Every structure is written in C-alpha cells, then in structure tokens.
Amino acid sequence: MNWAGLYTVLSGVNRHSTAIGRIWLSVIFIFRIMVLVVAAESVWGDEKSAFTCNTQQPGCNSVCYDHFFPISHIRLWALQLILVTTPALLVAMHVAYQQHQEKKLLVLTGHADAKHMEEVKKHKMRISGSLWWTYVCSVVFRLLFEAVFMYIFYMLYPGYQMVRLVKCEAYPCPNTVDCFISRPTEKTVFTVFMLVTSSICIVLNMAELVYLVVRACARRGQHNSNPSSGKGSFYGHKLSSEYKQNEINQLLTEQDGSLKDMLRRNPGLQEKGDRCSAC
Amino acid sequence: MDWGALHTILGGVNKHSTSIGKIWLTVLFIFRIMILVVAAERVWGDEQDDFICNTLQPGCKNVCYDHFFPISHIRLWALQLIFVSTPALLVAMHVAYRRHEKKRQFRKGDQKCEYKDIEEIRRQRFRIEGSLWWTYTSSIFFRLIFEAVFMYAFYFMYDGFRMPRLMKCSAWPCPNTVDCFVSRPTEKTVFTIFMIAVSSICILLNVAELCYLLTKFFLRRSKKAGNPKHHPNHENKEETKQNEMNELISDSCQNTVIGFSS
C-alpha cells in the first residue's frame, strides 16, 4: 500500500464529487503527493547524515538533531496528506451503502437482472439528503486536518524557514555547539511550496462548502415553491402488493433524489418531469 | 504517485490533442521525464556527499553547498516537468465537462442528441473549436510561460548552464577562502545542456502548435464568413450534416472527428 494505492482508492470517490472536489483531488495528487515523492523526499533524504555539529563529542550530533527536528517535515507532510484525503472515504462508504439499498429495491421490484445491477453501479449519485450531510462532514474534516497540520508546522518550525545554523547545548554537547543543516535553502523553497499548495487546498475546500450550502438552500427554495415533487407514494400504485409498497416507500424516503433518477431511466417505470443527476 | 501515474493521467488528454500536441507529449515523456529518471538522477545522486571542501572545519561544506546550489538541478527539472504538463489537465477537465453535458442530454431523451448509447459519447473525440479551442490555446500558453520561467530561473541561479569543477567559498564558518570541488562536473554539464536543448525543442513545438491553432481558427472563420448558408440555426438536419461533411472533406487537417454517419 503506497501513494499509488491511495490514488486507486480515491479515484473511485472522484466520480461522486462536485467539480470543485475533483479539482481539489487533482491538486492534492499532482502538486502535493507527486512533488513530495519525486522531489521533496530526496531533498530531505540526507537530513540526518549531513547534519554536522562542530564537535567530536559522540552523541552530540544525534541529540541536537533530535532536539531541533522532533518530526521531520517529510513525515509530517505524509501524515497530513493521508489524513486529509481519507474523509473522502466516508463519502465512498455512504455511496456504497446507497447502491446496496438500490440493488435491494431492484430485487424487490423484480428488476434484478444484470443490466440494471450494472446501471446501479455505474450511475452517479446526486449529492442530496443524507449523502449531502456526509459530504459536507468530509469537507469539514478535511479543512480541520489541514488547519491542524499547518498549525503544528508553525509550532514546530516557526516562520517556515529553514536556518543554516542552529546552536545546541543539550547534554552531552560540551557548552554551546554550532550545528549546520544540509540544504537549508532548498528545504525552505519546498516548505513554502507545500505551504502554498496547502493554502490553495484550504481555499478550494471552503469554496466547495459554500457551493454545497448555497445549492442546498436553492434546492430547498425550489422544493418549497413546488410541493408536488414529493417522494414516495407516486410509485406505489404501480406495484402489486401492499407489503412491497411499504418496503419501497421506506427505501424511497431514505434514498431521496438518486433513486428517482435510476427508476426514471428504467423503461418499466417511466416518470416524467424529473431532473437528471447533474452535480 | 510518480511519473508513471502522471503518464496515465496525461495519456487520456492525448486523444484530444493536435498532432503537434501528441509529438510534444512524446518528447516530454521520453526525452525529458525518462532521461531524468534513468540517467540524470544518478548523476546528481551524490551531489552533496561528494561535494568536498578543502577544510576540516565542520559545517563549512554544508554552508558552501547551500550557497552554490540553492535548489538542485534535479528538483528544478522535476518541478518544471510537473508544471509544464499540468495545463493539459485543463483540457481534460473541459472535455469531461462536455461529455457530461452530452450524457445529460442523452439521458433526457433529447431529440437533437445523435448518439446511440452512452459508450459512444465516452469514446467520442471532440473537435478543438469553440470554448474548447480557447481552453486548449490557454493551456499551450501556460505551458510556454512555465517553460520560459523555469529556463530563466535556471539561467539566473546557475550562470550560463555550465557546471564548474571548482568553487571558492568564504561563507562563515569557513576560515578564509576555501576551495570546494563539485562531483562529476562534465557529466552534469552534458545533461544540463541536453535538458536545456530538449526544453527549447518543446518551446518550439508549443509555439508551432499555437500558430497552427490560430491559423486554423482564422481559416475557419473566413470560410464561415464566405459561406453564409452555414448557419447554426439551420432547420434542415440533412443539409447541416452534408455541410459538415463537405467541410470535413475540404478541411485537410488531421484532427477531424468521426461524428456523423452518412
């Protein structure tokens, strides 16, 4: 399991994201993960071996390195990227659950053939109802993790700049000892770069949050002015038994808009006047 | 997530590029990314370990290395390649958006929609015209800008693209002036010149592509101006199809689409 594995996992989520979500995912993978792997890791590769202190006292080098670099930048960024990308899996789980419900419904209505099952897997879910809440939570968590890690970075390495020289007096170093860091300028450049991309991702997440909220309010306004677009009982009269009808009604109230779209496309249950699942 | 993944992502964009764009992408992957990975990274691999200064003063080597090499060539090239290849994603996003719109039309059961199924929409290649033309041209423009900026950054940092054998360093804590020796300077010079040359070729290809797109745009516009029957609100579908076919036949450009059946 490496970055490529994570990419595979998250590409699936991409389908059910908003446009801003997809841009965010591209920025994460190309400008953060890829830069980390192909460039930053080699800059920090020799951070300990090339950390030189002006002393021959054994142990002083190690102690001073540990004192000034409790966690390496590279590891912090790796943790940050993993934590920031994983809330998307909440959405993936919810989508999988909804798809499972739709398949159950198809079995109940007697449309459980391979073609319809494939369609359930392929069609894109609308971000509405409970999926909307899950999606919004995932965006909020992303924002939270980004902010927390930016703050940790600032706490550990104030000013984000890598200095050339640090003065160390931890035991067993005799007195104050000069210690020199390897490639400080290059490290500063990459720190600033990663910081900038992190800020861009924060801005994208905020924009996505605003977009989702505005869309939800707009949809609610439309719904209030058009009460006939209700859920549930419209399909009821097409089905044979009351038991089936009750089950279906229950599932429909849970499924909200996405299932309507799927049933609309089903030639056996045509419904006019509904909108396509565009996000 | 590495160069291979970038290749996968950009491979999809290739379908909607012009011929020059496809050549550019090939040059990028074979002569720049591949050379970087299989050769250049090894040459620069021991750049700091084998950077030797004529002093026993601890810290002097680190400071002198940092002074003469603020950013390593390898990292600069890696960043340049990432930045130069990403504008193509704008085109990919635009194409994905158009496909999405066509799928929406298809699903609505729109009469104007000519596709037989969703698979055909997915496979279709879009012509570079209209808003896609503007997106494509902007992406080429950004590529050119990024290439130029990085070439300038290179020149600014490493005066003249040549790697000297010896550098004289007097930064603290080095006592007085100290001789520092760079590892593999000739090999590094060779690769630097190679990468600069390929970068220039890519710039030329981008300029050529831009000229080609502009020429095509003006030709198409003059054809439309000289052929007033070719109106978008044409009511007769068959005539529109025939006009399109005629245009396609007379337009001897390489990137025509397989859109209409006779």
TrEMBL record, chain A:
InterPro entries: Connexin, Connexin32, Connexin_CCC, Connexin_CS, Connexin_N, Connexin_N_sf. It is found in: Cell junction, Gap junction; Cell membrane. Residues 145-212 form the Connexin cysteine-rich domain. Keywords: Cell junction, Cell membrane, Gap junction, Membrane, Transmembrane, Transmembrane helix. Signal peptide: none annotated. The keyword Transmembrane applies. GO terms for cellular component: connexin complex. One of its GO terms (biological process) is cell-cell signaling. It holds the Pfam family Connexin. It is a multi-pass membrane protein. Gene3D superfamilies: Gap junction channel protein cysteine-rich domain. Residues 42-75 form the Connexin N-terminal domain. One of its GO terms (molecular function) is gap junction channel activity. SMART domains: CNX (SM00037), Connexin_CCC (SM01089). The chain crosses the membrane at residues 21-40, 77-97, 131-157, 190-214. It comes from the Eukaryota. Its main location: other. One gap junction consists of a cluster of closely packed pairs of transmembrane channels, the connexons, through which materials of low MW diffuse from one cell to a neighboring cell. Belongs to the connexin family. Beta-type (group I) subfamily. A connexon is composed of a hexamer of connexins. This is Gap junction protein. It comes from Hemiprocne comata.
From TrEMBL, chain B:
Keywords: Cell junction, Cell membrane, Gap junction, Hearing, Membrane, Transmembrane, Transmembrane helix. Coiled coil: none annotated. SMART domains: CNX, Connexin_CCC. Residues 42-75 form the Connexin N-terminal domain. It is a multi-pass membrane protein. The keyword Nuclease does not apply. It is found in: Cell junction, Gap junction; Cell membrane. It comes from the Eukaryota. GO terms for molecular function: gap junction channel activity. The keyword Transmembrane helix applies. Residues 146-213 form the Connexin cysteine-rich domain. GO terms for cellular component: connexin complex. GO terms for biological process: cell-cell signaling; gap junction-mediated intercellular transport; sensory perception of sound. The chain crosses the membrane at residues 23-40, 77-97, 132-158, 191-214. One gap junction consists of a cluster of closely packed pairs of transmembrane channels, the connexons, through which materials of low MW diffuse from one cell to a neighboring cell. Belongs to the connexin family. A connexon is composed of a hexamer of connexins. This is Gap junction protein.
